[in-house]
Amino acid sequence: MQRNFYLSNKIIREYNLLGSRKFRKKLGKIIIEGSLLLDEAVKAGIIPETVLYTPEHNKAGGTRELLVRLKRTGSRMIEVPEKTFKAIAQTESPQGIGAIAPMPVQPGPELLQRSSIYFMLILDGIQDPGNLGTIIRTAAAAFESGAGIILLPGTVELYNPKVLRASMGGVFSFPVLEVARPEECLRMLREKSMQLIAADPGGTVPYYDLDLKQKKAVIIGNENRGISDLLLAGADVKAYIPLKGKIAALNAAMAAAVFIFEHCRQLEKMV
């Protein structure tokens, strides 16, 4: 009994520490919080090491089924008081269930070697977790295959809890590649013979006049400074989204969605 008490306390401390990027990187683990995210993670083949849940969560019908499935995966199951879970939870209104899981293995440069890849989003310094998560969620909803995302330096961490939540589980199923240097990103795209499009309010071509049916990579820039000079200079085309109102620019997630669905629209017209 005493051993279980100390084990539970150790895991609770670890869960709390994994709210920090430093410890996620050091331990190679992430927090997956909430029934929907856990369900999506398991569907993607991610097996939690430990699942923490409250007695209240265990009483709920639909969520109790999830607990049973998680237990069958071999995950360690620990019931904790609701007050304790609220103290360590990463969400403002926690659902009473969260897990510690191994950090998923993301694709390497070989992603761009796949002949099936025809559309990439390049995220240049996206700092808002909600924006990154929403972009991943949008891409995961729009593409069954053939697309991916490249994260450049300055972009918020992929496994930030807020990114995970905003992605609605898209992080676990959509290919995301992290590239350490913009120069390396440009080289890889050139080797893939992808046309590079900069989404730039100061561009010269409206997005709907682009030919997005061939292999393309679209750069979405930082929320404040936009696209870095190096990538802007390396772009083949600078495209803009026409705006009629008094707002000068869309946020990064909305801009990405416009290019994603314009690409999908043009492909559908070919069928």
Descriptive account of the structure:
- The model has no long low-confidence stretch (mean pLDDT 90).
- A seven-stranded parallel beta sheet has the order 7-6-5-10-8-11-9, sandwiched between helices.
- It has helices at 2-17, 21-27, 35-43, 55-59, 61-72, 82-88, 129-142, 161-167, 182-191, 229-234, 252-270; strands at 29-33, 50-53, 76-79, 97-102, 119-124, 147-151, 176-178, 195-199, 205-206, 216-221, 237-240.
- It has eleven helices and eleven strands.
- The radius of gyration is 21 Å and the shape is elongated.
- Helix 7 links the parallel strand 5 (119-124) and strand 6.
- Helix 7 (129-142) packs parallel to helix 11.
- It is α/β, with parallel strands linked by helices and 271 residues long.
- It starts with a helix and ends with a helix.
Structural key phrases:
single chain; 271 residues; alpha/beta; 7-stranded parallel beta sheet
List the helices and strands and how they pair.
Layout: H1 2-17, H2 21-27, E1 29-33, H3 35-43, E2 50-53, H4 55-59, H5 61-72, E3 76-79, H6 82-88, E4 97-102, E5 119-124, H7 129-142, E6 147-151, H8 161-167, E7 176-178, H9 182-191, E8 195-199, E9 205-206, E10 216-221, H10 229-234, E11 237-240, H11 252-270
Parallel strand pairs: 2-3, 5-6, 5-10, 6-7, 8-10, 8-11, 9-11
Antiparallel strand pairs: 1-4, 2-4
Helix pairs in contact: 7-8, 7-11
Largest sheet: 7 strands, parallel
Q: Tell me the series of helices and strands, N- to C-terminal.
A: HHEHEHHEHEEHEHEHEEEHEH
Q: Give the terminus-to-terminus CA distance.
A: 64 Å
Instruction: Give the helix tally.
Output: 11
The class by helix and strand makeup works out as alpha/beta
Overall, the morphology is: elongated
Q: Which strand order spans the largest sheet, edge to edge or round the barrel?
A: 7-6-5-10-8-11-9
